[in-house]
Write a structure and sequence with these properties.
With about 280 residues, the protein is an alpha/beta fold. It is built from eight helices and twelve strands.
């Protein structure tokens, strides 16, 4: 019998949504309230070298949160904190050892402030080079988001050149939302990946745009709402599945339960489980 096997997201869901927003600015406070209202998760990419020691009496339009305010907002929020470099340079324009320092120092600072392990990243300025990618490997960065629009829902394969679906100001945003919600994936699940900066909603006076996006796409039973690192970890767990030569037995060596579509039926492979495939 010919067998068809491909990945599903947790609970057998065929679709996932993640967001990635940069710079750790004051507008993230309002933005996070919108996300939480609709059950949507986001990764916030922070420059720890740009945190002011305290919030100024008069906050500039694109002002960064101070350390304490950032800790109060992001820690234990259900959202992810990720690297965005220490001071937000063009990493490919500086010597490789300084690029590594920008990444590693930001990672060390964020881990000290928020606890845990920080392995995600978004490229400052959205730019990179092969040498910068190698720096990230040396700094044990798991994934790094670019600003290259794909208008695609494909699950990434090159995680250190992670291209998003689109920016929130993409003129085709709601056309993409409609396709994502009302079409069915074929042979692989779909990932909608949105990025931006929350200060842009003030700059462009379009908070209603992100509110409409979240209202349209949030709260659905067929979508997994996850941070960037949650999706990365899940995909890696799926890729670690070990099959017998005849694909009638599968083993999940990871600590993450994984769902697969096996001959058009959702099937859960528990952490550390051997599962017979009938």
């Amino acid at each position: 019998m010919r067998k068809c096997i491909y990945m599903l997201f947790p609970e057998g869901k065929p679709k996932a949504l993640t967001l990635s927003y940069d710079d750790g600015v004051v507008q993230d406070v309002r933005f996070m309230k919108i996300l939480d209202r609709y059950g949507i998760k986001c990764t916030f990419n922070l420059n720890s070298g740009r945190f002011p020691t305290e919030t100024p009496a008069e906050m500039p339009p694109r002002g960064n949160l101070c350390v304490q305010a950032a800790k109060e907002l992001y820690a234990n929020s259900g959202h992810e904190v990720a690297v965005h470099s220490l001071t937000h340079p063009f990493l490919e324009k500086i010597p490789p050892h300084l690029a590594c320092l920008e990444v590693l120092e930001d990672r060390r600072n964020l881990e000290a402030i928020f606890g845990g392990i920080v392995q995600g990243m978004a490229y400052p300025q959205g730019t990179y080079s092969d040498s910068v990618v190698e720096c990230l490997r040396l700094c044990d960065v798991a994934y790094a988001r670019t600003t290259v629009t794909t208008e695609s829902f494909a699950v990434p394969t090159d995680w250190l050149r992670l291209h998003p679906t689109c920016h929130h100001n993409n003129p085709r945003l709601f056309e993409l939302v409609d396709r994502f919600l009302n079409s069915a994936p074929f042979l692989e699940p779909w990932l909608f990946y949105l990025w931006g900066h929350s200060y842009e909603f003030d700059d462009d006076n379009n908070w209603d745009r992100i509110e409409k996006f979240c209202e349209s796409i949030g709260g659905r039973d067929d979508i997994w709402y996850a941070t960037n690192i949650e999706i990365f970890d899940y995909v890696q767990a799926y890729r670690r599945l070990v099959y017998s030569s005849s694909a009638d037995l599968v083993y999940n060596p990871s600590v993450i339960p994984v769902w697969i579509n096996y001959n058009k039926q959702p099937l859960l492979i528990g952490a550390g489980e051997y599962k017979v495939l009938n």
